[in-house]
Amino acid sequence: MATFSHAPISAFVIFVIFISWGSLSPSQVSARRPVISESLYNTLFLHKDNAACPAKGFYPYQSFIAATRSFRSFGNRGSQAVQRREVAAFLAQISHETTGGWATAPDGPYSWGLCFKEEVSPQSDYCDSTNTQWPCAPGKTYQGRGPIQLSWNFNYGPAGKALGFDCLANPEIVSNNSVIAFKTALWFWMTEQRPKPSCHNVMIGRYRPTRADRAANRTVGFGLTTNIINGGLECGRPGDARVESRIGFFTRYAQLFNVSTGPNLDCGNQKSF
Prior knowledge:
Layout: H1 26-30, H2 38-44, H3 61-68, H4 80-97, H5 153-163, H6 178-190, H7 199-204, H8 211-215, H9 222-234, H10 241-256
Helix pairs in contact: 3-6, 4-10, 5-6, 9-10
């Protein structure tokens, strides 16, 4: 992947309303405001419905908001700045995972998130046959699908169990149902998979590095979420173009959310989990 340059940012102000629901009644909780406005969503993903994108029409705003209702803590913990930063970080990560951008792309490379819904030309069936807890279904493959590019049977299995469907027997649903696709991405973001913390806890400040983390230079920040998502391939490699792409999306999105990125954006000096 080529090294990208940062996209220019339009000068406008977008107001996003967040509501803390910890002390609200059940009826108020059900009416909780969206974690992002539709206008801002469409500004972030300027080209998701471009004819050049294989996922054209698959990632509507309404599907994302519907999925967030199953994860009430997402974008809803900490100060408003913390909430905005978490949502921006999540959307940046799924943007890189599904990017259709290139260095000279219209509106910059970081305006082309959510362009794909399935891995292109997978080189594996992503079936770990040694994992007996989440056995692969005959004839099924577990390549990257959805916004987070959910991969491997040991991720499809627990995601489906948490979300209430048999994802091992029907992995294709992740690239056929946009609400479920977003739910699998949010499940991955919100769920601790020891020794990995959840990306959610990292971004809201609830994660405390262990002794092993400190020895591996796994410092808290956006870079640690990259380590959680794909550290084995991308981290510990200063200047990796994939990591720079993730940072590029996050930097653009944080500006549009009117929030700082926080420290430790990359994982170039971190050991993977």
